[in-house]
Amino acid sequence: MATNATSESTYIAYELIDKPFPGLLTKHRRRLIIFTCFDFCLIFLLWILFVMTKSIHWKEEMMRQINFTNGRFFYNSLFDLVILSTFRCGALTICYACLKLNHWMPVAVSTGVTTLFDIPKATIYFSQRHAGYPLEFAIVVCSLLVAYIEVYLYDSKTRSLISVCNSQGRASNAMPERCHEQSASAYITAAELTTDNESDNGASFLQKSKYDTTGLVESPEWYIGKAERALNHGKYWRSQLCSWKKVGHSPLLLTHVDQLYGKVLYVKQIFPVQLKQLFSVLYSQAETCPMWHKEVLKYKVICKLNDNVDITYSLSAPSLRGYIASREFVDVRTVELDDDCITIGSISVPYGTVADGTSHIRGESGPNVAFLTAIDENSTLFEWFFNTDLKGNLPRSLVQRSLVSFMVNFIKNLENHLKATYG
Description:
This protein has 423 residues and is of the alpha+beta class. 44% of the residues lie in helices and 20% in strands. It has two domains: 27-158, no CATH class; 219-351 and 359-422, 2-Layer Sandwich (Alpha-D-Glucose-1,6-Bisphosphate, Chain A, domain 4), CATH 3.30.530.20. Strands 3, 4, 5, 6, 7, 8, 9, 10, 12 and 13 form a ten-stranded mixed β-sheet that branches. Strands 1-2 form a two-stranded antiparallel ribbon. The longest helix has 28 residues, at 27-54. Pfam families: MENTAL, START.
């Protein structure tokens, strides 16, 4: 249960309601199994309707349909498609519900077998010797269609907490051993969200919040390199904007699916302030962000690595009326200064617990890169690439809507703050 710092109301976050108990199937698996049962019921029902409507002597027609000894069974009967549907339903249920396999091979095999069977079946069955009843077409088409829908419904993203922790960073570089140990306790999933986690880790040496804490990080070079790679990733995205999909125009909002980091959002806006003024608000005075952007509850620098690189902690406000709980992020942040362009980049890194008395789900940010470009003395172009993983068992549509809303509100709140500060 999470509580909004700005409200006395109490709510249960969506992911805590929908998270399955240990040993039960995830909602993606349940959806696939239910659809395979629907697959069998649909094909069987269509076949029964076809038999009943083809002839008034439906009993004789049914016996003819299921007569396997007939040498022309494949040519004259559609009952083999019912058998094929039974095979799909049984195989996928056994593999994904009973054995709980986490591999795409079973659904790929069932779809491949269906395709190889249905295409010759349709070619032979609908020859000139068959008039083709509507139900006959429906049985063949539905048999092939539902097989490919089952491929679409398959979701292989269910992984254990250990595999998630071992894959933190998503870059190919190996992280320090101490970081692995800290990340296992720092990244909290929705199922583990309890207030005990924070108290158990209360003695962590990384909980101190001083600006001269470089020594608390065993390998600053790894963090600095991580930040530099995030900047380079943002520069690459910027060079590919012409191929991105437009999803909004006020402000300009683009989206793209990156092979490594997933969905990335891009926003563009011109602010009537000087470059140094915008930089001061977004970087030098970033810890005051919660004062003008209410969707951020907390932002602070917790570790300074060098003059241009530090580690920050941020806490987002609950969104969608509490369906998505607060998320905490620990990012390494860097800045690259030029005369007419300033680049600010950040990305999540493994870090110990940042205790504040409550436990929060640890989100994971991909490369978040902002480009500040001076247009003239009194206007600055702001471009922001935003990528994050909220973790938890959340529907993609809810996450997408929440992130888009966050970016649009950020631009509006930033614009209002700049007007109030600089006129």
